[in-house]
Specification:
By secondary structure, this protein is an alpha/beta fold. The chain has 3 domains: about 270 residues, 3-Layer(aba) Sandwich (Aminopeptidase), CATH 3.40.630; about 160 residues, 3-Layer(bba) Sandwich (Glucose Oxidase, domain 1); about 140 residues, Up-down Bundle (Transcription Elongation Factor S-II, Chain A), CATH 1.20.930. The chain is built from 17 helices and 15 strands. The chain has a 7-stranded mixed sheet, with helices on both faces. The protein is globular, with a radius of gyration of 24 Å. About 55% of the residues are buried.
């Protein structure tokens, strides 16, 4: 670390962040009124340290779950409805059918659809209430709704019932999104109760679902801190995370709110040492609006983000107990070596990165912004297995995630101060780098690996050689570009312009299906989605093969065009 980095990290303290965590542990932040209370507290603590805060007040479309239960054979089963379930306070009755599925074995599959071959179960599902393994997530609920179910019961993996959200719509719907708004009643139950309900289903029984829901537009406070740099003040690194929670939500995400608050305090005190600016925001509507706050921000400031944001950094569930490792760390490939160096310098740990999930306030992919972090530190796999824990989407791997058990004991002071320093160093080093620290050669290598894998799956049914050639040509151009940076023949300002613009081209082609400035559904997006149809060829009936090939021709055209555009951009500077 250099002198500035060491000075900034020496500022890190647990005084304010731990006080915020302790306070947030005393009240829920689900209803917008309670979320706004939390925002006010955060703003007050920041202003106490002289940090200037702008508070936006967007109107967000939210779904607030209330009480729920399942009744069958004279027995009442405890349940929780996910946000955006249809209301069933008067009860919805129907025949219960069990459709088996595997529980998610990691966070990436939590959000996936559950069935590959839906044709075999369509007749069993239509007009009935379905019970199946999984969280009440968009993948589970939307798939059974498409098959004609009138209700869905998700069987959670353990003895707890987890809150969630079941809509595939990302953020506040627009008119094109509205047809995907869920119309089925959905609830989650724990595993023991789920097994009893499976027995009822197998015996041909019926159930009644009850779910109280409140839905509508809510004014929501959204604080933003802008710490202006001294050399390129218009350019900024964007750090963000959600403040709303399920229940008191200590590990998800009071610790993240505290981390960002402390980073804001530290960097504000050293703002004269920043080259670029740092922008920090706390989101409402994450849990009850499918990332409503971050989506509103992405929409409201889209052109500014497009022109000036050099990276976006998500902060969710840092500083939790037993979280000693950096596994399954979300990052785009171009950022991998950069964040590995940050974590090594602070924690002395290796990192094991993975493709970012379609989750966690990654609301900026369609703009095209290099991104790193979502969840941060986590417990080792061996410890998770020893405790009998299953995969969850936060809290450092603690299964208190999205339950009433996510209380103060989930937070760990030693882990929190370490993670505060990691986030502080990441955004500081990113802001102060002479040349933006992202290596697009790693992304080109990822593309070549993906194309090779897809070609194996396609066999002789589709030729991806044009995609391969375009990716190889881009990689070759990038080799010359980075050599030019090293030799000094490519200036830092020119290099930074290219590195930022490459994100605008290559992030959307790797992470989105929708056109720019729209938001893809909250379902897993495969790598290079324009040509990912090759992974489905084995599941398609023969009479659909011609249609699939037509789709692949069009998708490959989109991909090759983007790769060629990126190559030309690089060649203009590297020549």
């Amino acid at each position: 670390m250099n002198e500035i980095e060491s000075a900034v990290l020496a500022e890190a303290s647990l005084d304010e962040p731990w006080a915020l965590v302790e306070s947030f542990a005393t009240y829920k932040r689900e209803h917008p009124d309670d979320v706004n209370r939390g925002m006010d507290e955060l703003v007050g603590r920041l202003k106490k340290h002289g940090v200037e805060v702008t508070v936006h007040e967007p109107e967000l479309f939210l779904s607030l779950p209330g009480l729920a239960r399942v009744e069958a054979d004279g027995v009442t089963f405890r349940a929780k409805p996910p946000a955006f379930s249809a209301d069933a306070r008067n009860g919805l009755s129907g025949e219960l059918v069990y459709i088996g599925a595997n529980h998610a074995d990691d966070i990436d599959t939590i959000f996936d659809k559950k069935l590959d071959d839906t044709g075999k179960v369509a007749e069993r599902v239509r007009g009935r209430i379905v019970i199946s393994e999984g969280f009440a997530s968009p993948g589970l609920v939307s798939q059974f709704e498409e098959l004609g179910a009138i209700g869905v019961i998700g069987i959670n993996p353990g003895v707890d019932v987890h809150w969630g959200i079941c809509t595939t719509i990302w953020g506040t719907p627009d008119l094109d999104d509205l047809p995907r708004k869920p119309t089925v009643v959905s609830v989650a139950v724990n595993n023991p109760d789920g097994q009893k309900l499976i027995e009822i289903a197998n015996a041909g029984g019926s159930v009644t679902l009850f779910a109280e829901m409140e839905e509508g537009w809510f004014k929501s406070k959204l604080p933003e801190v802008f710490i202006r740099g001294t050399e390129e003040p218009d350019k900024y690194v964007f750090l963000h995370g959600h403040l709303d929670s399920w229940d008191v939500g200590v590990g998800d995400n009071a610790t993240g709110d505290a981390t960002m608050m402390e980073v804001a305090r530290m960097l504000w005190a050293h703002r004269g040492k920043l080259k670029r600016s740092i922008r920090i925001a706390w989101w409402p509507g994450h849990s009850t609006g499918r990332y409503g706050g971050s989506t509103w921000f992405a929409d409201a400031f889209a052109i500014d983000l497009e022109e000036n944001c050099v990276a976006q950094v998500n902060c969710d569930s840092p500083g939790c107990r037993w979280a000693t490792e950096f596994l399954n760390l979300s990052r785009m490939s171009e950022t991998d070596s950069f964040i590995a160096g940050v974590i090594r310098d602070v924690a002395g740990k290796d990192t094991f990165g993975e493709r970012p999930h379609r989750a966690g306030d990654y609301s900026f992919n369609n703009i095209g912004i290099s991104s790193y972090f979502m969840l941060s530190s986590t417990m080792p796999v061996a410890e998770r297995e020893e405790k009998g824990y299953y995969a969850v989407g936060g809290c450092g791997g603690n299964i208190a995630w999205h339950t009433e058990n996510d209380i103060l004991e989930i937070a760990d002071p030693d882990s929190l101060i370490r993670d505060i320093k990691i986030y502080a160093l990441a955004v500081l080093r990113n802001a102060n780098a002479e040349v933006l620290p992202f290596d697009w050669r790693a992304t080109a290598d990822e593309f070549l690996e993906t194309i090779a894998d897809y070609q194996k799956k396609a066999g002789d049914r589709f030729d991806l050689s044009r995609s391969k050639a375009a990716a190889q040509a881009l990689k070759s151009a990038l080799d010359g570009f980075y050599s030019g940076i090293d030799s000094g023949s490519v200036s830092a300002p020119a290099a930074n312009g290219v590195i930022q613009e490459l994100a605008r081209i290559l992030v959307p082609i790797n992470f989105t299906r929708e056109v720019r400035f729209r938001h893809d559904p909250a379902l897993t997006v495969p790598a290079l989605p324009a040509i990912a149809t090759v992974t489905e060829l084995d599941l398609l009936p023969k009479e659909h093969m011609g249609f699939a090939q037509t789709q692949l021709v069009r998708g490959q055209n989109r991909l090759v065009s983007a790769l060629n555009q990126a190559r030309r951009l690089v060649e203009r500077v590297a020549a």
